[in-house]
Amino acid sequence: MRKQSSAIAPSTVAASVLDTVGNTPMVRLDRLTADVDGTILAKLEYFTPGASKKDRVARRIIEDAERSGVLRPGQPVVELTSGNTGAGLAIACAVTGHPFVAVLSRGSSAERARMIAALGAEVVLVDQLPDSVPGRVSGADLELVELEAQRITEERGAFRSHQFENHSNVEAHYAGTGSEIWFQTGGSLDAFVDFVGTGGCLAGVTRFLRERDPSIRCYAVEPAGAAALAGRPVSEPNHPIQGGGFARADLTHLRGLRLDGHLQVSGDDARATSRLLATREGIFAGFSAGANVAAALQLLRTDLPGATIAVVVPDSGLKYLSTDLWPG
User: Fold this and answer.
1) Would you tell me which CATH number, out of the four given (3.60.20.30, 3.10.270.10, 1.10.10.10, 3.40.50.1100), belongs to the domain 14-52+168-320?
2) What pTM did the predictor assign?
3) What confidence tens digit (pLDDT) does each residue in 284-300 have?
4) Which of 149, 187, 194, 260 could be bridged to 103 by S-S, CB 3.0 to 4.6 A?
5) Where in the chain is the domain with CATH 3.40.50.1100?
6) 288 is catalytic
7) Which of 54, 105, 132, 161 is catalytic?
8) Is 54 considered catalytic here?
9) How many CB atoms are closer than 10 A to CB 150?
10) What is the pLDDT of residues 219-237, one digit of tens each?
11) Cα–Cα distance between 167 and 68 in angstroms, integer?
12) pLDDT for the residue 64
């Protein structure tokens, strides 16, 4: 029997799963843009080990902290997370030998908490506020998670990764996501839009792209009704777009960053667009991917007809099967 040749050369065998983070593919969304003038290029971050863009952040935070000595061998790591950073840190800590505690709101999807636990981490769930909506994590809910993360960090003498403040977050997307987008598109790009959680992805990618071509327009995407960065009143803190939109007007990673505008997407539009990504493009993604693509379509239909716009597909739809993102 003839032996089949492998498509993967032996020299590409990774030393650990952390070496497989990054270099995710980009695809044209030709079916979703068939009735508009322009192009949307989507970077599929669910091709990473933890199925989200936060794997990049987790790896960089742990590597930088170990290199600088602020994270000691075997020291516990603690982080507040809506789920994706937690999964990334669970993977990074499993490989590097650090116990990891992920602190989540009970409003986060069950799949993400179960995934983190399956990766060997301890999961602490924090009750939502009485007036919060199950399955929708508000900024106020996140504040309760922050308090519990602080308590556990002090109690265990742990390293806190601080994804909302740690500059390694931005650097992961500057050196990785931004660089990859630039080279994958050959620099032929007019705009980049990104749904804001910590702001690290938007800041890192914007900085890299602008250094290469200052004319590239970059936009923050927020939920309609929780567009605090745009200076709008917060009327719907309990929006359904999980993983961001926490109605924080001041984000460390976005300070001093020049943006070309702020775009708002409703929960209904984000949900509907995520479903269209699945049924028309075969891209099974989460809420925030729908928000990003909906915002890009909004630009093509208004301010930037004919443009080429890059978006990130932050994570997999598998993480939201228990939510109202998917029918049935």
Assistant:
1) 3.40.50.1100
2) 0.93
3) 999 999 999 999 999 99
4) 149
5) 14-52+168-320, 54-160
6) yes
7) 54
8) yes
9) 14
10) 999 999 999 999 999 988 8
11) 13
12) 99
